[in-house]
Design brief:
The complex is a heterodimer of chains A (288) and B (134). Helix content of chain A is 17%, strand content 24%. With 288 residues, chain A is of the alpha/beta class. Chain B is of the alpha+beta class and 134 residues long. Chain B is built from 5 helices and 5 strands. In chain B, 33% of the residues are buried. Classes of the chains: A alpha/beta (288), B alpha+beta (134). The interface between A and B is medium-sized, with 21 and 16 residues.
Chain lengths: 288, 134
């Protein structure tokens, strides 16, 4: 399972010289399965560059949306395959009581926010609620679960062979929960992330920033590490960087993360900060 | 034993009542008590960590609920049972005997937890009528 990060930022795009190294595009991760099937996790602004890189050769694409906050769908309008008649694109996402997935996305891809409407897109486009049971795409088994964030929000687990990637970019599992002591079935996202080969997880805030952001739906460093430790993830990709966090800040943040993770008994090589254009084999850091 | 993640709505409900001083009681879709908070534990006479999960027949009789005339209330007529069965809010006033033998008169409001996937459980908020309550 090959993975490439096209956007690792949370909340709002934050381009500029101070964010060049980690990148300023919002959430988008490309996953390529062994048969060449492409899964796209979220459609933040990073998906624009992915669309360019895919060219016209890849015609069947599945986009898995965790939720419909703007930083996770903003790039959709600029994803080149949507504008090709040869493309077959399926957009998966969370169901909601008020409207269908298509209608909710159309609130963004419509006037006055957009010059085109969903119905005008020339590709073969379909919308599906992510099932509550496992389903298959290509050689992978997929699972989704509702997780703690604001509004209907999913996490995904993609398993091919003995490799599993879990993606929970927006998640505040610690709110009202003791991550170190509560039963696993009371911890949001636990079952989804359990033993994942590669875990992408929200780590928007430092511990000192978090007290003024409790309930906003995101995690602080210590909670992210406690969650990752508890689920026994093999490799942890700290994701959804706060737009205020510069490259220099994130370098220091990474150092703190490694220090805390090793104090929990982990290996320094298991902890990584997501970096735009980073490409990896999901199982590359598997312990021998 | 963990059997998978609880429905997120139950997790949110548990997280909410954990921090409340309003006594609250949470059951899953089968009517099993999956959590009650410390404020409820003070009225019921035992903390949840001590009593653990309780099946409907167990909690429905453990507190010996009676109505205001002293007539026993069967488990299927308790507010939580009705909220689960009929998927509607229910209010009632009862007398119960806590697990440490104290009698309490309580107001109970139970609400179903309905989701896109159907009924996931129910939540009962209650408070003592012993302390000058209406």
């Amino acid at each position: 399972v090959r993975v490439k990060i096209w956007g690792a930022r949370g909340s709002v795009p934050s381009p500029g010289p101070e964010t060049n190294r980690y990148g300023g595009n919002t959430s988008c991760v490309e996953v390529e399965l062994s048969d060449g099937t492409i899964l796209v996790l979220d459609a933040g602004t990073g998906i624009r560059s992915l669309g360019v890189a895919l060219g016209g050769e890849r015609t069947r694409i599945n986009i898995l949306l965790t939720h419909l906050h703007l930083d996770h769908i903003q790039g959709l309008m600029f994803f080149a395959p949507l504008f090709r008649p040869t493309s077959e694109i399926v957009i998966w996402g969370p169901e909601a009581p008020d409207a269908s997935l298509q209608d909710r996305i159309a609130r963004y891809i419509s006037a006055p926010l957009s010059p085109v409407e969903v119905r005008e897109l020339p590709c073969q486009l379909s919308f599906r609620d992510s099932p509550h049971t496992e389903w298959q795409i290509g050689p992978a088994t997929l699972r989704s679960a509702s997780v703690t964030h604001r509004g209907p929000t999913l996490g995904y687990r993609i398993t091919e062979g003995d490799t599993s990637l879990c993606y929970i970019p927006d998640h505040e599992p610690a709110i009202g929960t003791d991550l170190l002591r509560d039963d696993p079935d009371w911890i949001s996202g636990f079952e989804l992330a359990r033993g994942a080969t590669l875990l992408f997880h929200d780590c928007q805030y430092s511990d000192t920033e978090y007290p003024t952001h409790i309930g906003w739906g995101h995690s602080r460093l210590s909670d992210t590490l406690a969650f990752a430790h508890r689920v026994e993830a093999e490799h942890v990709m700290l994701f959804h960087h706060d737009p205020m966090h510069s490259d220099d800040f994130l370098d220091v943040f990474h150092g703190a993360a490694v220090e805390r993770w090793t104090a929990l008994g982990g290996r320094a090589s298991q902890i990584e900060l997501a970096t735009e254009r980073r490409e990896l084999d999901a199982a590359a850091n598997r312990a021998a | 034993v963990a059997t998978g993640q609880r429905p997120i709505e139950l997790i949110h409900a548990r997280n909410l009542i954990t921090g409340l001083s309003t006594p609250a009681f949470l059951v899953d879709e089968d009517g099993v008590v999956v959590f009650y908070n410390d404020a409820a534990g003070m009225i019921l006479g035992r903390r949840f960590e001590e009593s653990g999960h309780m099946a409907p027949d167990e909690w429905g009789t453990a507190f010996e609920p009676v109505d205001r005339d002293g007539k026993p209330v069967p488990v299927e007529e308790l507010p939580l049972s009705i909220a689960l069965r009929q998927a509607r809010p229910v209010y009632s006033r009862l007398r119960i005997r806590s697990l440490d033998g104290q009698e309490h008169e309580i107001h109970v409001s139970a609400i179903p937890i309905l989701t896109m996937e159907g009924l996931r459980g129910a939540l009962a908020l209650f408070w003592s009528a012993d302390e000058g309550g209406a």
